[in-house]
Every structure is written in structure tokens, then in C-alpha cells.
Amino acid sequence: xxxxxxxxFRRGNVIYTEGSRITGCYCVSSGIIKIYKTGxxxxxxxxxxxxxxxxxxxxxxxxxxxxxTTAQILEDSTLCxxxxxxxxxxxxxxxxxxxxxxxxxxxxxGEANSYITDIAQKSVRERLAEVLLNLKENFGLNxxxxxxxxxxxxxxxxxxxxxxxxxxxxxxxxxxxxxIELQGRQIKIINNAALSKLANI
Amino acid sequence: xxxxxxxxFRRGNVIYTEGSRITGCYCVSSGIIKIYKTGxxxxxxxxxxxxxxxxxxxxxxxxxxxxxTTAQILEDSTLCxxxxxxxxxxxxxxxxxxxxxxxxxxxxxGEANSYITDIAQKSVRERLAEVLLNLKENFGLNxxxxxxxxxxxxxxxxxxxxxxxxxxxxxxxxxxxxxIELQGRQIKIINNAALSKLANI
DNA sequence: CGGTAGATTGACTATAGTCAACACGAGTGG
DNA sequence: CCACTCGTGTTGACTATAGTCAATCTACCG
Lengths: 201, 201
Prior knowledge:
6-stranded antiparallel β-sheet, 201 residues
């Protein structure tokens, strides 16, 4: 694909910033990207993570608007850049490509709607349990049942939509109840059923 | 357009229910539709309203999934039904149609992301103020500055993501502060600037 | 070895949810 | 015509949940 250029990025690098113009999207070859919005008081709200095979930045490209989120590397990544004009061109001439993208956008929309309902209606405890299950679903566990994504307590709080201290207290509680084990940022899931129950899904 | 059929619906009618299969989408000719999800405890979370010119149900059609929301008539409506196969066909053969839909999905996605951040980070007071401003933006005011959409207190609560009683108390507060006036379900906005300030946008 | 970022804990507070009682008006059926 | 019910709105009292602030603690890094 002569149109694609690949780039390497390291943890902490910012791919694009909320409010900036972007000229294309990126397809993730490897690594993990954190996509977040910044609230009025400066607090991050993590919207989602993107991993290998996923596409970021397409919303701004199609709407021809400034980015409404910031994309930052969580784990060293390789990304392919795809120019906006190419994306638009492909959508216009290739019906299947258009359908794929539409399905992608609709999938994210469905997830966003669930997220809204959860944040609006569930307790922080329920949401944290659910977030752990989602992370397990998306990133899996290694052979020792440890979540294959490393997040600070603050980042966890910024997914759940709560204060860092609340996450810390709840994680300790889950640990007390033998649902998880903690070792620094490593979170080991030992009682999946209990977690599902806590999440109240 | 021989493919289109139009239907009349009355307040309270349900167009489709969360979990059900739908075979096409509806384009709103007139009226207002309430789109909501039901949380685990049965509480409605209103995701958005659709009014004349807007399209509902396309997410399920493109993803070929059960509906993830319920669509219910808030104000008597006329809707055009568009079969799913036609939508998919048009996306595949008409590049501009595909782009339009993609832009629509992306627009909703951007709004959903903002909504997530707001619910996660703002207080109920701020969110209620913001909701009133959004309703004004989307449905306008009549000549007496009254919001052109009539919602129960419970529905307001189900947009904001809070308890009915909290909405009632906050509306009374806004009234005390001469920001709005209330007459049953009619909400008159008298101090827009104060409302914006409260919403902390 | 000092410095820094992140993690943890305790104490306190505020925000918002719950529960219960009551008000009010629109319809309904005796 | 009147009692009644139902849905909605309102208010008060209480409670619980979660946020804030401050003090440490820890690990890692230069």
C-alpha cells in the first residue's frame, strides 16, 4: 500500500490533541493508545483505548472538524497514517469500505450509549468492576491471570469517572474480598464471577 | 420516492424496543421521538431526541444487531420508513449517501463523547443547566421564551442522569435565582447568561 | 542520595439519592 | 355531582456515597 506510511511512537507521545486539526487517521499496528477528552476543570475522561487493528481519528476526518479527543500512546506503538482525502475517496468509490467504516462508527456509537447509561445510573463500585471486566475482555489476561494492560490508579479513575482515591479504596476492598490481587499496577483477577456480580450486568 | 412509506404515531407509541430486531430505519417528518436505554434497575436513560429531518434506527440496521435503545413518541409524529436493505444498497452504490451517513454517525459519536465526559465530571446542577441550554438549542423558545419541548420532571431527570427529586429541587433553585420561570411543564428561560455560567461550559 | 510521581490512608464534607408524606388536577365510574 | 384513583409534582428528613484535603509512604530514577 503505497499510500501508507508507518510511524513509531513511544509511551507518552501525543498523536493528536483535542481542538487541533488532523489531516488523516491512524491505523494501529501494535501498541495501545489512550483516547480521552479533557473536562472543563482539566480532568481527563478516558473514552476508549485503541489496540492493534483499530482505527483512530476518523471522526474528525469525516466531519472535517477539529479533534474532539486527545490520543496518547500508552504502550509503545506502530501506527500507519492514512491521509484524510484517501479515506474520503475510498468511502465514495468503494461501497464495502464505506459499509465497514459505517459499521465501525455505529459500533462505537452503541458502546458510547451503554457507557452513558452506566455512568449515569451505576455506582462507582459497579462501574469499576465493569471496567475491570471490559479490560479483561479487550486486552486479556496473561498466564498468571494478570490484566494485560498497565494503568495508573488515576487512569483507572479517569475511565470510571471518579476520584483516584475512590479507585484505590475500592481496589483494596476487592482485594479484601479475594476478588482480585494487586501488585503495583498488576491486577490479577481471581474471582471473575464475583466481579460480574459486582458489576451488576 | 416509491420506497418510502409514511406512518403516523401518537404520543406514547413505541417505534422499536431495546433488544428487538428492526428491519429498517425511520426518518422523522414531524414530531419528537425520545430515544432511551433502560438501565439494569429499569430506569430510563434518555440518549437523545430526534426531530424533523433526523434519522433513527440506523445503528441497528448497519450493524445488523438488535436495537440497543427504545424509541418512543414524545409528540405526535409522522415518520417515513426506509427498509434496511435499501439503506445498505444506497451506501454501497452512492458514495455521497455513504459520506452523509458516516458524517451523521460521527456527529452522534462526538456528541456521545461529550455527554460521557459531562456526566462523569460535572455536578447535577451543572448538567441540568446544560441540558436546558441544549434543549433550547435544539427545540427553541416560543415568543414568550418558553422551551418548545414539554418534558416531565422524571424525563428531565432521565436526561441529566439523576433522581426526579433532585431535578425538582434544582429547578426551584433556578427559579429562586430568577434564571427561569416555571408553569407546570413550561420552562421559561429568563437569564440565559446565568444558565451558561451555571453550566460551566 | 535527594527528588519526583504515584499510591495509600484517614478525616471530614458535600452532594445527591432514598423514603415518606402530601398536594393537585384530570379523568372515571358510581 | 361527588368520591376516587392515578400520575405527577413537591417538600422534608435522613442517609449513603463519593469527593476533597492533607499527610505519609514507596519505588524508581538520575
